[in-house]
Design brief:
By secondary structure, the chain is of the alpha/beta class. It contains seven helices and five strands. Helix 3 links the parallel strand 1 and strand 2.
Length: 190
């Protein structure tokens, strides 16, 4: 029988191989435990606001009614946030009279709905390049238990290229998110 020669590089390679296979087998037999929410996160979710984010006309009243109802049930403060999307071609503080008027009218409607539900609703107006980013930033800076927003089925070219506000919020929000879309209208058959 021929003599087996052991080379130092071969020994090192064999040890690394055995260690790697052993580590993989150990990892497979000991899966990581599910993360539990820390008491601080639980407290923030319990004490946080319900944030209603919107930047257009669709469904804002319906979303706010839902938030007021949830706020009353959960004894949570409600914040209605209107986001004025400022085009990249303008500075953030540039006056946009049409949008400013929409935001003012939305604030009046928010106060009327809050009075209907006998709920305190804080109304804020934020300016940003993208509504989704502004909503997530607000949720990151104030304890927020949930975000409620609407999503349109009709995406513009910019939304198709860069993603919609609802998609951004779903991916980046630090809390639960409720997205409401309009009901589909079935074509009439004749």
């Amino acid at each position: 029988m021929p003599e087996v020669q052991l080379h130092p590089y071969g020994i090192i390679l064999a040890v690394v191989f055995v260690f790697s296979v052993g580590a993989i087998v150990w990892w497979m037999l000991h899966p990581p435990k599910a993360e539990e929410e820390t008491p601080a996160v639980e407290a923030a979710l319990e004490a946080g606001q319900i944030l209603v984010g919107f930047h257009g006309a669709w469904g804002a009243e319906e979303l706010l009614r839902l938030a007021c109802e949830l706020g009353r049930q959960e004894k949570a403060p409600v914040t209605a946030m209107y986001v004025t999307e400022v085009p990249f071609t303008l500075p953030l503080d540039a006056p946009i009279p049409e949008e400013d008027e929409r935001a003012r009218v939305a604030g009046q409607k928010a106060r009327a709905i809050a009075a209907e539900y006998e709920t305190d609703v804080r109304y804020v107006i934020r300016r940003g390049r993208k509504a989704g980013r502004a909503i997530v930033d607000a949720a990151l800076h104030e304890p927020t238990r949930s975000i409620i927003l609407g999503a349109s089925e009709h995406l513009g070219m910019e939304d198709r290229l860069f993603g919609s506000s609802a998609e951004f919020v779903l991916r980046h929000a630090p809390c639960q998110v409720l997205v409401r879309r309009p009901a589909r209208v079935k074509p009439a058959r004749g």
